[in-house]
Design a protein that fits this description.
Blueprint lengths: L5 H19 L3 H16 L4 E4 L2 E4 L5 H20 L4 H18 L1 H5 L1 H15 L6 H12 L7 H8 L7 H4 L7
Antiparallel strand pairs: 1-2
Helix pairs in contact: 2-3, 2-4, 2-6, 3-4, 4-6
Pfam families: DUF6114
InterPro entries: DUF6114
Keywords: Membrane, Transmembrane, Transmembrane helix
Amino acid sequence: MGAESPGARDRVRQWRTTFRVWRWQRPFWAGLLTLLGGLPIAYFPYANLTMGQLTIRMSTTAGSGSLIIGVLLVVLGLTMWFQSATRVFAGVAAILLGLVSLVISNFGGFLLGFLLALFGGALGVSWAPGEVLAAKSTKDAQAVGPEPDEGVDDAREAADAGTATDQESRNGRHRAG
């Protein structure tokens, strides 16, 4: 007998499938990059780097601004995950906050947070939801052609478009004379 039972393998497979479906329904990578972009922007202004006896503080006068930008980027990343309808707003806001972090927060978390926020915001703006499989099969059926009774009235209207058979032409409004 193996160390792993078939029941555990099925649960892991089911969890991975569920996570994959959840991930495909939202801008997952955009939210992850935006969330990760906020961490160095918020962390570095408050970090102490110790090399032997030497302690280097990275704090700036705009430490609270860096913290606010970092927290907002984390919130925007979570918003992209859990409210995917606001992905365009969250993406644009992430790009703008990433740009502002260049000036406020140690060159945007030493360019690491800036680049992550920039790419995450761009992915959030450009992400579009996929098509549902049922809708895709309906579109394929429509692409094949209409049903025999469908489109007959449309064809008649198109054929009569150039003739004067409508009500206004019959009651004399378009007569010259």
